[in-house]
Specification:
Elements lengths: L1 H19 L5 H7 L4 H19 L2 H28 L5 H16 L2 H11 L5 H30 L1 H14 L1 H4 L17 H4 L3 H30 L4 H17 L1 H11 L5 H14 L6 H15 L1 H12 L6 H26 L11 H25 L1
Helix pairs in contact: 1-6, 1-7, 1-8, 3-5, 3-11, 3-17, 4-5, 4-8, 4-17, 6-17, 7-8, 7-12, 7-13, 7-16, 11-14, 11-17, 11-18, 12-15, 13-16, 14-15, 14-16, 14-18, 16-17
């Protein structure tokens, strides 16, 4: 099982880093070719809208084509779409490319999360997810600084070509962890509405949605804010690297603690922490304070992946893991759609306005999160 988890983690690392090398330079690239902050927010949100929409049905997609071909198709399409982003400048072309990235990446994460849940017992699930998320999170550490350096040395477009190459490299790793063909006899995948019948899953997905809406505002508008402060693209890459470092370091201890004291205890610290940091951004005017904010942003956000994947697996049947993880991932990616979209609209009122959206989003998340925590604990007492 150790080798299998390591291979799953390596796959997660490669899937993540193929986008992380692009993440810090995408808003900068779009800005350089003439798009405003409001337009960038809208365009970036299309990627997450496409990703979240397809993830609702990824269980059925994997059920028809099998995990291997679902992943292979997604990786190839992801590489092609990232190359197309820098080959077109027209709004329709950029929009289609970003939607293509979203659709492709929607086929990757849920099968991987389901595979991790399937190899772990209830007693060790936190530690197993902690290992997976730690290996995956190394990409959040390395990817942005690599992307920033590559962009500075070879031009912004080079980061997109690097991301496409890493996506294709992942094809070599998925072979040992996937079945060569779709099983002849399969348990029908649950539809998204069947998964969402469980009130606990619904509440968890709403909180996850609001958490990632906050995170989407940060990832989209913090590079633009740093450019307004005359900070370089390399510094932007370092900001996301520092965030990735603290995010990665917290995964293993979170997994172990979640097994001992319950994952629901980490929901509110992660949500509130990120909302507070986002609200504080307009008060930060130099590289040092922003890097410190990024470290805290990554640390508190690192509580969330292990926590939510553990809870979703706990309240889902084994044969429906892929569908359940698809719904969970969809809630997050639709949050990444809503956050930049709302941020783009808010940017019409002022350059700093997107950061103040952390207040209503954070308050709503806390309200739903408290209800979800109570529901989880009631369900555990009935077991």
């Amino acid at each position: 099982m150790g080798l299998h988890i390591a291979l799953l983690g390596t796959t997660g690392f490669l899937v993540a880093i193929s986008w992380q090398v692009v993440l810090p330079v995408l808003p900068v690239y779009l800005s350089r070719i003439g798009y405003s902050a409001a337009q960038i927010g809208t365009l970036v949100s299309l990627l997450s809208l496409a990703m979240g929409s397809v993830e609702l049905e990824v269980g059925r997609i994997a059920g028809v084509f099998g995990h291997r071909w679902t992943l292979v198709s997604g990786l190839v399409a992801n590489a092609a779409a990232m190359i197309w982003i820098v080959l077109t400048r027209a709004p329709l072309g950029v929009a289609v490319a970003l939607i293509g990235v979203g659709v492709a990446r929607a086929t990757m994460w849920s099968p991987l999360h389901a595979a991790v849940a399937a190899v772990a017992s209830e007693e060790t699930r936190g530690r197993v997810f902690g290992v997976f998320w730690f290996l995956t999170s190394v990409a959040f550490l390395a990817g942005p600084v690599i992307g920033g350096v590559v962009a500075a040395e070879f031009g912004v477009r080079a980061s997109f070509f690097l991301g496409a190459a890493l996506s294709l490299l992942t094809l070599l790793v998925i072979i040992p962890i996937t079945e060569p063909r779709t099983p002849t006899v399969r348990t029908p995948a649950a539809a998204s509405w069947e998964v969402l019948r469980d009130p606990i899953v619904r509440q968890l997905c709403v909180v996850n949605h609001l958490f990632y809406a906050i995170s989407g505002i940060w990832s989209t508008f913090i590079p633009l804010y740093m450019v307004s402060l005359k900070l370089s693209v390399v510094t932007i890459g370092w900001l996301f690297t520092v965030q990735g470092l603290t995010y990665a370091l917290v995964q293993l201890p979170t997994g172990r603690l979640a097994d001992r004291i319950g994952p629901e205890r980490f929901i509110l610290p992660g949500l509130i922490g990120r909302a507070v940091i986002l609200l504080a951004v307009p008060l930060l005017h130099g590289a040092g304070p922003l890097l410190l904010a990024a470290a805290i942003f990554g640390f508190v956000g690192g509580f969330i992946p292990v926590t939510f994947t553990m809870l979703i697996a706990r309240f889902s049947s084994r044969q429906h893991y892929t569908s359940a993880m698809g719904v969970y991932n969809s809630s997050g990616d639709l949050g990444f759609f809503v956050g930049p979209f709302l941020g783009g609209a808010a940017a019409l009122l002022g350059f700093l306005a997107p950061f103040f959206l952390s207040v209503p989003l954070g308050v709503a998340g806390v309200a739903v999160g408290l209800g979800g925590i109570r529901a989880v604990r009631r369900a555990e007492q009935q077991i």
